[in-house]
Every structure is written in C-alpha cells, then in structure tokens.
Input
Amino acid sequence: MIKKLIFICSLSLSLFAANALINEASPYLRQHAQNPVNWIAYSDDVLRRSKAEHKPIFLSIGYSTCHWCHVMAHESFENESIARLINTYFIPVKIDREEMSHIDSYYQQQHRRIKGRSGGWPLHALLSENGDLFWIGTYIPPKDVEDIAGMESLMGQIGKGYQANPALYIKQAKELKEEQYLKNNLPSVSISPETIFKSLQENYDSIYHGFTIAPKFPEASKIALLLDLGKSGNTHAQTMALEVLRSMALSGLYDQVEGGFFRYSTDAGWEIPHFEKMLYNQAELIPLYVRAYQLTNDPLYANIVKETIAMTYHRFGHDDLFYSASDADSDHHEGGYFTYSTDEIESLKPTDVLQESFGFDEGANFEEKYHLRLVLDKRPAGFEAFRTELKKIRFTRNYPFIDEKMITSWNAMMIEALYKSGSIDPSMINKADDSLNTLLKTLYLNGELYHQTLSGYPMSKKGLLEDYAFVISALITAYEVAFDEEKLHLAQKLTEEAIVKFHTKEGWVQNSQGLKVEVDLLDKYTTSGYGRMMQNLYNLAALVEEPRYGRLAQKSLEIQGDRILDSSMNAPSSMIAWLMGHYKVVHLSHQAQVLKNNQKVIENIAYPYIVIHPQQRDDFSACVTGACFANDKDIDKIAKEIESLIVKP
Output
C-alpha cells in the first residue's frame, strides 16, 4: 500500500513538474510553466520537431492579463486528462501575443478570413507538420457544450485522426492556404472622404455611441479619423467623435475612482468593462481627449487627460518607462479590486445627488456589487470628496497582477501622448523628454531597435514594424514641440532603417526575423503599425522635403487599397494616411518663437494635416510637397489660405 501511494504521489508530482516555459522571460509564458501540458515556446525548432515526430502543432496564443486565457488555463491546461491528450498527440506551443505580436497578427488575420469575424484571445490554431493551418478558434470549453466541441473531444478526435491519416489534414491545410490566395484578389473599391464617413456612420451606435454592440472597444483610430474628417469640414463627424469621447469618459469603461480606461466594455452601453487596463489604451485615448478639450474647452476632457496620466504613472510607471498591462482579476475574482459592496457604498453615506448621479438607487450592477459609472451627463457636486473615500477602500486591497514587460511601441505611444498633453499641462513635456531619452538609451542599442525589455532578462527580440512606426511618430511629435533637429534626424534615420527591414517588392511586412508576416491593417484593439508608418511617411515628406517618402506611402496604400475599405471599416489608421495623401500635408514655417506664440491659432486651423517647421524668415509660409501656395505675416490670412485647400463636396 505504501509503495502504491509513493508511486501515485510521484506520478502526480512528475505530471505537474515545471515544463520548458519555466526558463522564459515572458510573464505570460511563465504563468503556464506549471501546467501538466508540455508547453514549449515558439521557435524555429517547433516545425523541425513536428516533422520528426509526425505530430501536428497545437498553437496557443494569449497574454498575461487576459481573463479568458486564465479561465481556459484553469479549465483545460491544468486538467490532467486534457493535458495527456495534448501531450500525446500534439506539439504544444505557447506564444505571448505581446512578445510576438507579428505571429499573433498573422493568425488573427487567418481567423477573420476563415471564420468571417474577429478573433481575440486566447487564440488557438492547429497546424500540420508542414506548418500550415487546418483549424483555428478562440476560447474552447473543456467539455462539449451543445454544438461546440470541447477540448477533451477536440484534442482526442483530431489527435487520433491525424495519427491515423495525416495526409487528410495536410490536404485540408493546403486547400485553406490556396483559398487565401483567391480571397486576396478582391475587386477594387472607390475611396473618398464621403465614402469613408458613410462607412463610419453605418457602423455607429447613435444610442450609446461608439461602434458595434458588444463587446465594445474604444477603437481610438476610428475616433481619430472622425476628428480628422471634422477638421475637414464635416461637422457630423466631429459631433460623433465628441459623443463617443464623452460617453466613454462618464461610463464604466473609465475608472471613475482612479482614472484610466479599461480595455473594453462587455455591453453596448459602456457600463461593465472587462477590467484589464492596457498601456496602449491610455496612450491612444489621451491625445483624443486633448483634441476634444481644444475643440470645446470642456474641463471634463482636461480632467480625463490628467487623471489618466496620473493613473498610468502610478500603476505602470517605472524609471521613466511604462509596464504593459494590469490584470482583470484580483484575488481570483474578476473586477474584485475595482468594485464595491452595498455595505461599502452605504458606509460612505453618499448624498442624494451622488446616489442619483451614480445610479445607486438602481441596485448593484456587477455580480451583486457596484461598478461605478455616471448615469447623468456630468460629474456631480461632491464627486472629488466621494472619490477620495472610495480610493481609501480600494487601497486596502491587493491590486491585480501587473505585467512588467516594457514594450517599445506602447511606450512610444505613451511618450507621444505626454508630448501632446503638454498643451493642457506643460510639465508633461519634460516628462516626455525624459521617457523618450530613456527609451532610446534602453531599447535602441548599436543601431538596433528592440521590441521589449523585462528586468532581469536579456533583450533578444528585434523591433517590429510597429516599434519603428510608433518611435518615429513620437520623435516627429517631439520635434514639433521643441524643434530639436536631432529628433527629426533620428526620425528620418529610423525611417530609412524601417524601409530596408520591412518594405519588400510585394509590400510591407511586420518583422525582419524569421518567416516574414504580411502587415495587418486591423485597428480594432490598437492602431496598426502599418497605418502609423504610412502617416509617418507623409509627415516626413513634408517636414524634411523628401517627396520619395510621400510616393512610397501612396504606392503602398494603392497596393493595399482593396483591403483598406471594407464593410466594417476596420482600417481607420490606413484611411487617415489615405486622407493625408488626398488632402496633402501642409508644411507651415516661420521663426520658432513665432510658431510657439501662435500655437493655439495653428491648432484651431480647420485643416487636419499640418506640420510646423521653424525657418529664419519674416513671414509665415505654407507649402505642400513641391509647391508653396501662401506667404503672409498675418496668421489669420494664412489660416484661411490653408482652409481653402478643402474642396467642399
């Protein structure tokens, strides 16, 4: 009996012994190091091993703060019988989507192509031993649910089926691949500012504001596109943008207690979020609220900017850079840190005004607790004092897990946001300078830009197109704030490097190492590196007077034209780049101090694409690539000349 117990215990211990992920730098991969699944990290060896063992590859993609990734890990990857099936029939591979965003992007594109809808995380793909895809899906329950196959049956049926007849699955993968090439030959579409707005309008939620029903993401690039169309004279577009921004600011998507935005809303009305906070959400939304404040002078928008920055420094700030994300779960409860019990709310004795403003009289709104949102159109009297008391309750709790990876592209986004917020709080410009200098010292070494850094681990992953695109964008913004020529020169240098690394005869790719992955145009979760790179090319063409950059952007957009404008309007950052080519980027010059003195006037010019460049001259000069069209000492006259470039339909 004793020997039998020893055998059972040793078997159990061996099953849960750490797998190969224990030595990985990624916090997400290390979260799965104790799974009984024999996970390995993605590498070139995966395909070699698959061929040698004649096993298909089970690819699992997620990230450390993903709630449904945690759910599936607990339900399936910690399940001994499911783990045994995976280990027996597959080569199980884990990927951190933040670490290898180009790989994730490729399979998200495949999911959209095959399923006809967006994917998400966790994302799972089954590949033949040739590395070709034959099945793809997102969250999978452990057991069958109605007509949805669970992990147990899926792994068993496909695993045994592949073992018995691999040729069948290899053929299926080949057919899927051939179908992809056929679908890439789409008919051409007609693009104009009017068709762009119509497509946005058709997908707009006029009741709660925003796009789609649920889950509902901020989709910052769509709001930016609306604001650009607004600056082109489309007042309806501007109204839509301001409606979305105000609704989000007063809703449950925004953390009414500590500031900052959650990743997305689970409902159409922005009431209950998925409680993750991502650095990129803060970084992309801050500049939009800066623009909203410039348009309206509404203090709500300025407060959102200041509070979101304060939260980001408090929770994510580290030595002038920023961590990537915080989890939705706290002490194993989704939203546990952020929500309040009835007793906690009642203990604060909120006034009738506060009761009405927060909708407390409607009862708890999330798992018998309160997640705060404002049901009225403004912050009520007593808001700040009440929020202070709510913070005190929160600060007695454990804050959710924070992923301490510092990702180059997301940090560059945040740095650019800090520069842009300088028009509301000038102290942010010095903070942005410090962060930009630290980013370059840390992640741009010996002429090589790296994708991320994590304390205690060497940097090995070279920069992706998105990293170059957002660093270049931050440098351009930094230049326009302080006119530091070194920043502009570095932006141009990195642009030349990016062209060499990521531009091919067939178009742009996302990565320079390993199998090249075609660019993804999707902006649903965060702005695509491709879209931002095209914008950079147009801006640099004007700033450094290099028409080659503009021609490259135009040609690149023409190649992708059939993909850019689809029924869901999923590529707004590329559409912004198209508008830049359509309207032309105006190069506005004068002496540096004169440009700074007239900053407010320049911001209010009703034209979406203006770059400013100091020159030793006695008047303002406005040019587009290859031609100057206005000179005058009076900024108001120059503004009218620039605005006249917009041809009203």
Summary: The CA atoms of residues 489 and 627 lie 23 Å apart.
